């Protein structure tokens, strides 16, 4: 609604800016033509529906048109525009009342324009309007004015004589015609107006317009018939020239429209080709996806094979083995830290004992009289108290390079390691103390770390105890699976 009113206001401003050289101006009364500010139509008004809002908009448009016509002094259409605005105003007044109507419309009320129209009427009494022919001539283009001037010069002398004779006869009849026209207009015009002030105001404006129109009509009646026909011909030529210009513009637009249509057809063809190519690519991608899906299904079926399942089991076993190695490594590091603390403690005790011995030492006493703290036991009595006649010397024991080693990694065989040591012990009558003493050299890598950890946790034990611990540690599911797999590979 506001956008429509603003557009109408812009149209009125454009009409205000249009020059009108054919009519006189109002230098002293120009301030009365200031357009009142458009009041906002309330969105919510008691008793105001959409039809009533539309009626108010129609009234505002009619009021603006009358205001523009009165400002541009177009007196032929002013009475009809004023009458239409008055009818709409009375409709609004009928459903809103006079107070709310004046409050809503503000400066747009016809009553607020009463003083303006009075000033216009007083000004018209002291001014003489130009004739309709002169007004048309002032609005014509320079080319048409020149053509009309050339055509009228040939018959100007004859027309002046005829106008003198006909003008004297018409002046005598003009007052009686004007009075009769005013009486007829006063009887017919404001029959629908119920407001006395508004009715009298409208009637006075219409009477003034009729007086002006009668004066113009009396001047036209004195024209010669030939001149009237020439004017009609000039108007026809003017209209024809406008039609030619419009046709030329229409042809230009038709040509542009034709070129646009051809361009659209070319674009449509190009887009159709592109669409077909895109569809072909999409179908190719779909086929590729189907082939990939079928390949994946076949691959999934092959994954269910026994060998692949075995590989998965091996991976799980290897993962568990790695976790055990990491755990053992962490435990060994913990025990090393504990051994460092115990070694430092033992060192401190030794230093303390040495200091105590130095304190208790008597320098003048002979050396042999110094008491011994503890008598050392022989190797045979301490390490091998159970050995009998089958004891052999260290020269007969196999060298360290001839003993088997065990790492506990890869494809190990702890059973072979244990059986080899048992055979050496049986053949050479080697005591457990010697076998236990060289275990730190027989174990390597992971097995050596495990040996250090077990020795620190459990202390010194015989060979039979170490055999049971080795079997418990490495005779696990992983080793059994390796043995079964090796057996199957060797047989099949």
Report what the structure shows.
Residues 159-174 have a biased composition (Basic and acidic residues). Residues 1-26, 136-194 are annotated as: Disordered. This is Retrotransposon gag domain-containing protein. Residues 1-10, 175-191 have a biased composition (Polar residues). The chain has 492 residues and is mostly helical. The chain has three domains: 2-133 and 162-223; 225-304; 310-357 and 392-491, no CATH class. It is 73% helix and 0% strand. It is built from 18 helices and no strands. The chain has helices at 2-17, 50-71, 78-96, 98-105, 114-125, 132-139, 142-153, 156-188, 196-221, 225-303, 306-360, 379-382, 414-428, 432-437, 439-442, 445-458, 463-474, 477-491. Helix 2 (50-71) packs antiparallel against helix 3 and helix 7 (142-153) runs antiparallel to helix 10 (225-303). The longest helix has 79 residues, at 225-303. It is elongated. The protein starts with a helix and ends with a helix. The model is unreliable at 1-6, 8-33, 128-137, 139-151, 184-218 and 368-389 (pLDDT under 50).
Major sheet attributes: none
**For the residues shown, what is the average pLDDT?**
66
Q: Let me know the number of strands.
A: 0
Structural class: mainly alpha
Helix content: over 70%
Task: Count up the domains.
Answer: 3
**DSSP helical segment count:** 18
Radius of gyration from CA coordinates: 64 Å
Distance between the termini: 96 Å
Order of helices and strands: HHHHHHHHHHHHHHHHHH
Can you tell me the residue ranges where pLDDT is under 50 for at least 5 consecutive residues?
A: 1-6, 8-33, 128-137, 139-151, 184-218, 368-389
